[in-house]
Amino acid sequence: MTMVPRIHQVEQLKSNITGIEAMTLVSSHHFPRHSHDQFGVGVIAFGAQRSWSGVGSVQALAGDVIMSNPGETHDGAPLDGDVRGWRMLYLDPALLAREVEEEIVGQVEIVRPVARDSVLAGHFGRLFGCLTAPRSDRLASDENLLRSLIYMLRQHGTARPSPGVPSPCVAKAIQHLDSAPDTSVSLAEWAALSGVSRFQLLRGFAREIGITPHALSGACFWHGDFWLMVKLLSGQLRGPASRTRAIMTRAFVRQLGITPGRYRAAVA
């Protein structure tokens, strides 16, 4: 019988949001039963593992999302003794509660220790990338954190959505972007300026113009001339600047998938 060499590599990464720990692990180690003080969520990158959980023994394969509640006892062992690798985020319970309080009511608890959910895995990947990027993008981190948590708790938790509320003021958010194009703001600050919650703002952007606030902000700066984009949106770019207007229109459609006219109509 061939002996598999023992491998245990753990890398603690710097997270740009206080209250969230990020790490990558490559290991053949068998972890004894233990618990964490935080919520845990991760994705198996390669290999597979078997673990004991509150719902009994479960297996996690490559691509699966693994989750745990604070204080929840679990263990972990590689299937067939092979090495497995995964990425994890550990979230402080107080941080998670603050993030979802506008959108989720009731006690927050994860009920599935393992889920084959490509949507959640995608959310996790984008969030992990934002949190560990060398240069912090506050708006992208805020958006990805909120969307990941809301989706995870709705699909794999006991919490339920809060009652319906009025539509977000998307136009107010865009007006703020127009008036201060060089100012970096968080999703919370942008939502407060618009008079709505963060998730209301995300929903409003997705419903009314088909993109997120972060995507809009990035598209506006993409061409390198913000004020041309503003004039294009407002319909003020005419006459001698028609060639520039045509170039900007094509750039706008490539980035957002809609014409400036449709965009203006959506936020009017």
What's the quick description here?
This protein has ten helices and twelve strands. The protein has 268 residues and is of the alpha+beta class.
Q: What is the secondary structure topology, with strand pairs?
A:
Blueprint lengths: L7 E6 L6 E8 L3 E4 L4 E8 L1 E6 L2 E6 L3 E4 L5 E5 L5 E8 L1 H8 L3 E2 L8 E2 L2 H15 L5 H19 L3 E2 L8 H10 L7 H8 L3 H11 L4 H10 L3 H9 L7 H15 L3 H8 L1
Antiparallel strand pairs: 1-2, 2-9, 3-8, 4-7, 4-9, 5-6, 5-8, 7-11, 10-12
Helix pairs in contact: 2-3, 4-5, 5-6
How would you describe the overall organization of this protein?
This protein has 268 residues and is α+β, with helices and mostly antiparallel strands. It folds into two domains: 8-161, Sandwich (Jelly Rolls); 170-267, Orthogonal Bundle (Arc Repressor Mutant, subunit A). 42% of the residues lie in helices and 23% in strands. α2 runs antiparallel to α3 (138-156), α4 crosses α5 (187-194) and α5 (187-194) packs across α6. Residues 220-228 and 236-241 have low confidence and may be disordered.
Task: Summarize this structure as a short list of keywords or feature phrases.
six-stranded antiparallel beta sheet, alpha+beta, Arc Repressor Mutant, subunit A, 23% strand, Jelly Rolls, 268 residues, four-stranded antiparallel beta sheet
